[in-house]
Design a protein that fits this description.
This protein is an alpha+beta fold. It is built from 7 helices and 10 strands.
Length: 336
C-alpha cells in the first residue's frame, strides 16, 4: 500500500513532507535502512546500464563492416591481379637476365679451357659437330649445348689397374701365415719353438726357401751316381723360417694353386731338423742343402749336392743320435 500525506506539529502548519510506504515499509524516514538499500540498488542499476551501453558502443565500432559495392570490389580485385602480374613479369625478366649472364660466363670459361687443351694436344681429325637450335631457344640452352660439345672433344684417360706380381702375392701369404703363428704362439709358445724369455714381438720372418720335387719320369730313369740337382723342379711350394735372432723357431708354409698363394701352418719339427742340417753342413763351409717333397709321400726330404755321394734324405733322420744321409737311388726307388 502506498501512502502520501503531511504531518502537523503543535497545531502549526509545517512544510509538506511526503510519506512513502510500500508494502508496509516506510521509506520516508532518513534513518530507514530500506531507504539506504533503495539508494544503493539504484546506483548499482545505473552502473550496470552504463557498462552495457559502453560495451555495445565498442562492439559496434569493432564489428561494424561498411558495405562495399560490387563495382568497387571488382575494381579492387582487378587492380590486385594486375599488380601481381606486373610483379611476376618483372621477376621473370630479372631471372632470365641472370640465367643469360650465367650461361655467357659458362661458355667463356669452357672456351678458355678448350683453347688451352687444344694448344697442348695434337689436333684430332674428326667431323665438325653442329648443333641446331631454334631461334626462340633460351641463352641457357645455347650455353649448355656449347659446353657439351667442347667437353666431348677432350679424350678420357683411364688409369690402368695395377697388377700385383707373384712375388708380392707370395710375401703377403707368408706374412699371413707368420701372423697366425704369432697369434697361436701367444697361447702355446712351446708348440712353435719359442723358449722362456722370448718376446714374440722380437720374432721376424726370414727369407723364402723354395721347395723342389723330382718328376716321375726322372725318377724312373735314375741310375746310381747320377747327379740329383739337375733333376730338381720347383714344386710351387715355399717355406719361410720364423727367426728369434739367429735361431729358427719354426717354419711356415706357402703353396701356390694357379694364380693364388695359400698360407699354411707352422712346423716346429721341420725347423728343428733344418737347424740340425745347417749345423752339420753349414753354408760357411760351402754347403747348400735343398728341401724336396713328393706329392705322394707326406713329409719333407733334403739333399746336399756338394757331398761326394748323391743323396736324398728324410728330414726325420736328423732326430736320430747319429744322423746321416741316404743314397739317392734308394729313396727314388721307394718313390716309384
Amino acid at each position: 500500500m502506498l501512502k502520501l500525506g503531511c504531518r502537523k506539529k503543535n497545531n502549526m502548519a509545517m512544510p509538506l513532507k511526503f510519506q512513502f510506504q510500500l508494502a508496509g515499509v516506510d521509506f520516508s524516514r532518513p534513518s530507514s535502512p530500506y531507504r539506504k538499500w533503495l539508494r544503493m540498488g539504484g546506483l548499482i542499476t545505473a552502473f550496470l546500464l552504463t557498462a552495457v551501453a559502453y560495451w555495445g558502443y565498442l562492439h559496434h565500432l569493432t564489428h561494424h563492416v561498411r558495405p562495399v559495392s560490387h563495382a568497387a570490389a571488382t575494381t579492387t580485385a582487378t587492380a590486385t591481379a594486375k599488380a601481381a602480374t606486373t610483379g611476376t613479369d618483372s621477376m621473370t625478366q630479372k631471372a632470365e637476365a641472370k640465367i643469360a649472364a650465367a650461361g655467357s660466363m659458362l661458355v667463356s670459361a669452357v672456351q678458355n679451357i678448350s683453347s688451352k687443351a687444344t694448344a697442348t694436344m695434337a689436333p684430332a681429325s674428326s667431323a665438325p659437330m653442329e648443333t641446331a637450335l631454334q631461334p626462340e631457344a633460351a641463352p641457357v640452352a645455347k650455353a649448355v649445348a656449347s659446353s657439351s660439345v667442347m667437353i666431348s672433344t677432350q679424350p678420357v684417360i683411364l688409369r690402368p689397374m695395377r697388377v700385383h706380381t707373384d712375388e708380392e702375392k707370395l710375401l703377403w701369404a707368408a706374412q699371413t701365415a707368420f701372423a697366425n703363428v704369432i697369434d697361436n704362439a701367444g697361447k702355446n709358445p712351446d708348440a712353435y719353438g719359442f723358449q722362456g724369455g722370448d718376446f714374440l714381438s722380437d720374432a721376424k720372418l726370414g727369407e723364402a726357401m723354395p721347395v723342389y720335387t723330382i718328376e716321375e719320369s726322372a725318377r724312373a730313369g735314375y741310375r746310381g751316381g747320377q747327379p740329383v740337382k739337375p733333376l730338381l723342379k720347383p714344386a710351387k711350394q715355399w717355406v719361410f723360417p720364423v727367426l728369434m735372432g739367429d735361431r729358427v723357431c719354426c717354419m711356415v708354409e706357402v703353396k701356390q694353386s694357379g694364380h693364388d698363394y695359400a698360407p699354411g701352418k707352422g712346423s716346429k719339427s721341420l725347423a728343428m731338423a733344418w737347424n740340425k742340417i745347417q749345423e752339420l753342413w753349414p753354408a760357411a763351409e760351402g754347403y747348400h742343402p735343398m728341401l724336396l717333397v713328393n706329392a705322394a709321400v707326406p713329409g719333407y726330404y733334403f739333399t746336399v749336392p756338394e757331398l761326394p755321394v748323391q743323396n736324398i734324405t728324410d728330414v726325420s733322420e736328423m732326430f736320430y743320435l747319429h744322423p746321416g744321409t741316404s743314397p739317392a737311388d734308394v729313396i727314388l726307388a721307394s718313390w716309384r
